[in-house]
Amino acid sequence: MNPMDPNRHNQSMMGGMDRHGQPSNMGQAHVTGMMPQQVPGGSYQQKQMHQMTNFTNYSTNVNNLQDEAITTSADHQPTTSRHPLTPAGPSSVRSDATPMTPRSAADFGVGPPQLQNIVSTVNLDCKLDLKKIALHARNAEYNPKRFAAVIMRIREPRTTALIFSSGKMVCTGAKSENESRLAARKYARVIQKLGFPAKFLDFTIQNMVGSVDVKFPIRLEGLVLTHSQFSSYEPELFPGLIYRMVQPRIVLLIFVSGKVVLTGAKVRTEIDNAFKLIYPILKNFKKRG
């Protein structure tokens, strides 16, 4: 090779010279390794697209392998499908399961409240001579200095009547509405037999008193703090908590032993409804241990 050949420098740059002075392919191979391989029959831009396609296929294969690994590990764990906005916890419960309902007092063998006393009034619609009634009627007493009414009692039903000179009468002690009405009629009949034109008008039940035992001790201090708007508790004055219910309009006397007295009702259903409302509250304040 002529040393003065102008192509000598290019050949040395591209491939160099071997020991016989012939062009060598070593440098070309080195440059070829450094430069991206050309796609047969394509330009340099086609070569770039070819490499990008190969890289995309490689990334897709790696992602597929990762997904397969995750799916394989997930097959050994119980999974539940739920909406992304659904909170965890309750969603794991079977949808066809029956929801738990609060147990009533009857489920624990408590109640219903038993009537202890009924107060009723009636109008006899005539003026009465209380001294004459006290002298001629059995089981009657009259002391105007102590009380301005005749106190009369009968055995069946076991009740007591307060008879006023105006003709008004109050009957107490009956255990049911029917007994109270029956007792009032018997008292009116006694007055008629003594010669007074007594009638039987405007019979009305004024108050019903019931009682029940919830069969567990109650934390009255916690109850009065939580329901201070409706209750009052002064153990120095009275051992029971006074709870004034708004609807129905009933007053309850609640004792630490679990005994409850309900008063202020006009009909029996008011007592029953009041106890159904107060029992879950008392259950929350049951003494532990």
Question: How far from one another are the termini?
Answer: 113 Å
Order of strands in the sheet with most strands: 2-3-4-5-1-6-10-9-8-7
Shape: elongated
Structural class: alpha+beta
List segments where confidence is low: pLDDT < 50 over at least 5 consecutive residues: 8-15, 26-39, 78-101
Order of helices and strands, N to C? Answer: HHHEHEEEEHEHEEEEH
Radius of gyration: 51 Å
Mean residue pLDDT: 78
Number of helices: 7
Percent strand: 15-25%
Question: Could you explain how this protein is built, in words?
Answer:
With 289 residues, this protein is α+β, with helices and mostly antiparallel strands. The chain is built from 7 helices and 10 strands. The protein starts with 7 loop residues before the first helix and ends in a 5-residue tail after the last helix.
Keywords, please?
289 residues; 7 helices
Quick take:
This protein is of the alpha+beta class.
Protein topology:
Blueprint: H1 8-14, H2 26-34, H3 44-74, E1 114-123, H4 130-136, E2 140-141, E3 150-154, E4 159-163, E5 168-174, H5 177-193, E6 201-213, H6 220-226, E7 231-232, E8 241-245, E9 250-254, E10 259-265, H7 268-284
Antiparallel strand pairs: 1-5, 1-6, 2-3, 3-4, 4-5, 6-10, 7-8, 8-9, 9-10
